[in-house]
Amino acid sequence: MRVRDVLAASLALALVGGAARAGGYSVHVVGSAQTIWTDNLYSVPEEPSPDRPAYEAELYHQLRPGVLVSYETPRSVHNLSYDIEANVYTDHTEAWSLQHIAGWRGFFITSPKSELGVAALFSTGDLNALATRQTASDGTLIVQPGGTSSFVSIDVGENLNYTATRELRLTQGLRARRFTTTDGLGTETDGIEIGATGGVDRSWQYSAASLQLATAYVTLERVAEMAPIEATDQVNASTTLSWRRDFGPRWTSMIDGGVTSIIPLDEGNELVIQPTIGAQVGYFPNWGSAGLAIRRAVAPNLYLAQNTITDSAIVNAWLPLPWLTDDPHRPKLSVQGTLGAQRSRLIDTGTGDIESGFDIFAGDVAVNYAPRDGVTVSLRAQHLRQNADESAAMEVLSYVRNTVMVTVMGRFPDRLAGEVPLRASLRVDRSNVTPVGEEAAPAQAPGGAP
Is 136 domain-assigned? Predict the structure, then answer.
């Protein structure tokens, strides 16, 4: 698809969006336009190599037209979306790329005491473009292959909350996801995870204790040219006990600990048992949120098709700035940011040994201006450093990448017929969840208005 085809699609979506009706459903044009400068277009080391792209700076543009359909009934909300992401490079026309993203989120009130959330997401395209889709306050660090990679991602999930009593809440969840990549060196990865979770949460006035059980079937396969096929089938099982405490209406803390087991299904592989631990502090004003999380986790990395142990410390925030508005619940200016470091080590399921791995350091900050509802202008700067140990048994490359981007994004009409409420909450009193039937805070700010 050429750029003019993307522009034609944008015009068609605008005509559809103009036909949006009030009432039980609405149709919206959504989209963004970005101008991006990066000093490392292909996320590769600075040293030249004949088997990978050159280390080059580039100015490029990203167009992301899409459509969003919202539908609401007295007991359910549905959001259906599809968008196309086109990356148009100034000097490297051969690197022009497209990405397709389609998703559905649903929310159901299944009884006076229970709620059900369902989501499905499909995306495909160029893996190198994913860094611009995450918000600056996303707070997620993931080891990714360097260079350019095509990918296909499928992610389906379900979660059910049942409030047995005012103090006792039960949760249940299911998830299935698959992630495949093919890079410029001919290396292919395929990761599949199908899992279930169950938990119980007991709260008091200011504190809460919860127990979470999880299990998943995982298959990881990696095929590299001139190398044997690496494939692993396993069952991951974990138990986590956590304690949360509210300190006033704005501050909340949590500590948790548990154990994760990687149970091999292939003959000759070794059982792996590792402890997990974490601590978190959250700040929730009337609009936005901020937090610090320190964590040790054990999980498969589907980008690499490898099991990993990660130790991380991450600070993230999305907070309002006091200028240009008279309503603190609807700020026109806001700042987002993430600052974090992570150490990821690979687990050899054949021997049970913990191998060397990767270090990630990231800094990401954005200043947003919302001149009107449904329109946001953002200036963002991002620094990402990924260091691979010399003995890491993979072709994942070390690289440093600095990126600056200017973004204009919007939604027309700006008001949704119904929006899936935000239900996840660190707070014991759950004061920062989105009330059913109301929109989230402007620009989907975390925390939202109480």
Answer: yes
Q: Is residue 449 part of a domain?
A: no
> Is 450 among the domain residues?
no
Look at the chain and report how many structural domains it folds into: 1
Q: For 191-224, what is each residue's pLDDT tens digit?
A: 999 999 999 999 999 999 999 999 999 999 988 7
Burial pattern 272-300, b for ≥16 Cβ within 10 A else e, equals: bebebebebbbebbbbbbbbbbebbbbbb
Provide the domain limits for residue 339.
Answer: 3-444
Sign of CA dihedral 53, 57, 59, 61: positive
Say how far apart CA 379 and CA 368 lie, in whole Å. 7
> Residue 282's domain is classified under what CATH number?
2.40.160
Question: Is residue 363 within 8 Å of 382, Cβ to Cβ?
Answer: yes
102-150 confidence digits (pLDDT tens): 999 999 999 999 999 999 999 998 866 445 677 888 877 777 766 677 8
CB 316 within 8 Å of CB 294: no
**Nearest CA among 312, 311, 333 for reference residue 321:** 333
